[in-house]
Amino acid sequence: MVDKLISHINGICLLNGEEIEIVKELVREKDVPRKHFVHRAGEIAQYSAFILEGCLRSYTIDQNGFEHILQFAPENWWISDMYSFVKQTPSELNIDALLDSKVLILSRDCQLRIFDRIPKLERYFRVLTENALASSNHRTLDYLSLPAKVRYQKFCDLYPTLINTLPQKQIASYIGITPEFLSKLRGERS
Amino acid sequence: MVDKLISHINGICLLNGEEIEIVKELVREKDVPRKHFVHRAGEIAQYSAFILEGCLRSYTIDQNGFEHILQFAPENWWISDMYSFVKQTPSELNIDALLDSKVLILSRDCQLRIFDRIPKLERYFRVLTENALASSNHRTLDYLSLPAKVRYQKFCDLYPTLINTLPQKQIASYIGITPEFLSKLRGERS
DNA sequence: CTTATTTCTTAACCTATATTAAGAAATCGA
DNA sequence: TCGATTTCTTAATATAGGTTAAGAAATAAG
Questions:
Q1: Best of A71, A92, A133 to disrupt the B interface by mutation (most B CBs within 10 Å)?
Q2: Is the pLDDT assigned to residue A189 strictly greater than 90?
Q3: Looking at the domain that runs over B2-135, which CATH code has it been given?
Q4: What is the spatial distance, in angstroms and rounded to an integer, between the CA atom of A95 and the C1' atom of C21?
Q5: Which of B68, B82, B136 sits opposite A130 (nearest CB)?
Q6: N or C: where does chain A have the smaller number of CB atoms within 10 Å of the terminal CB?
Q7: Is the C-beta of residue A178 closer than 7 Å to nucleic acid chain D?
């Protein structure tokens, strides 16, 4: 199963046999059944997870008890609380599985050590992080400039897979509206 | 003036004399008077800019002609259209100076070549990008979960310098409200 | 210093989205 | 398979924040 990660890395920078072995040693496979957590708010994020199967999400719970989804992570995505993972401070995010899932976990320690042994992996994570930042910027601009309906349409275009596998209320939470309002938007003609 | 960049890099990973020389060669100093552009929507982002003095911003203009600010970049920050810079596709952002400014510019070409010659700089940019992503995530969650007034208060706490140097309308644009509404919030007691 | 331009404030009115509630549909768990 | 739980829909009502407009204050430019 680790092969899935290896091919993902190879899509960005080619690893030789020795390097592949090192990666295999540092990463640990883990089953995450639906609704189980990989990380809870209040803890320091020790791990970043690469999704082999299924789908996880990260989210906060606000003062009124409402969930707000920061990220969905389907197959071949990484998920973590970047802030807590990088700064090693207590996190405000929860990360759990929306579907029965299988992931690889990598600790921050291992990641930093791996960067010294295999500089190519520093490149791999630099590229991933650049892409994530570019997407995040796009999302920010969408909030600033587009009404909910258009944000929903863009979500459908961007993540067609998720539309069919996730409950609507999760999508509403991601695009920043209530499930009731999303239902209304979907009911509208045109 | 390049020394300012060198000390910023040294805050993350120490460069030796030779490496410092390489950086000095690859970067170009540029004056950017207030209201002048370093980048315009529609073009491919060739450069990333490090601010030596002053303050720049990146923003889109929506269909109705309203500006929405993605980022402020005061001294010691980098600014670019990450998406266009990384993917080398036409950009939707403008970048201009809010105050008379002085910057260093680095082309994407140079940056990629520099990564091969000085892997430490790949680390430098990885760390910067991780931090930027963590902040961007925070901002996203703030939009999802907090009312405008609280977002404004957090902005004041986070960027006290900008509060005093920038017109309020720019700040309103950054936190995602109209200048009129910000004015109203500021007028409220408590 | 004086005028022109930009920014800020206030207020009346408007709209996108939230809230509450309740029943219907779908999915889950035993 | 069947009851329990979760999700979805609809509709009435409420509100945060937007729009428009016009004058005041501040800042820039000549």
A1: A133
A2: no
A3: 2.60.120.10
A4: 31
A5: B82
A6: C
A7: no
**What confidence score (pLDDT) does residue B73 get?**
96
Six-digit token string for B6: 């060198």
Measured to protein CB atoms, the chain D nucleotides within 7 Å are 6-12, 16-21, 29
Using C1' positions and the CA of A179, the closest nucleotide is D8
Say whether A176 and B144 touch across the interface (CB within 8 A): yes
Q: C-alpha angle with apex B72: B67 to B73, nearest 5 degrees?
A: 140
What residues does each domain of chain B span? 2-135, 146-190
Which candidate from A60, A62, A129 shows the least CB-CB separation from B129?
Answer: A129
- At the top level of CATH, the class of A2-120 is mainly beta
The answer to whether the CB of A166 falls within 8 A of the CB of A98 is yes
Q: Cβ contact (<8 Å) for A122 and B125? A: no
Protein contacts of strand C with Cβ less than 7 Å away: A 34-35, 64, 66, 147-149, 176-178, 180-181; B 167-169, 179-180, 182-184, 186-187
d(CA B45, CA B51): 17
Q: What's the pLDDT tens digit per position in A123-140?
A: 999 999 999 999 999 999
Chain-chain contact of A60 with B141 (C-beta, under 8 angstroms): yes
C-alpha span between A50 and A74 (Å, rounded): 9
pLDDT tens column, B24-33: 999 999 999 9
Beta-carbon pairs below 8 A across chains A and B: 94
Q: In Å, what is the CA distance from A80 to each residue of A40, A46, A57, A67, B183?
A: 11, 9, 9, 17, 38
Q: What is the DSSP string of chain B?
A: -HHHHHHHHHTTS---HHHHHHHHHH-EEEEE-TT-EEE-TTSB--EEEEEEESEEEEEEE-TTS-EEEEEEEETT-EE--HHHHHH--B-S-EEEESS-EEEEEEEHHHHHHHHHH-HHHHHHHHHHHHHHHHHHHHHHHHHHH--HHHHHHHHHHH-HHHHHHS-HHHHHHHHTS-HHHHHHHHHS--
pLDDT at B64: 87
Q: In this model, does residue B189 exceed pLDDT 80? A: no
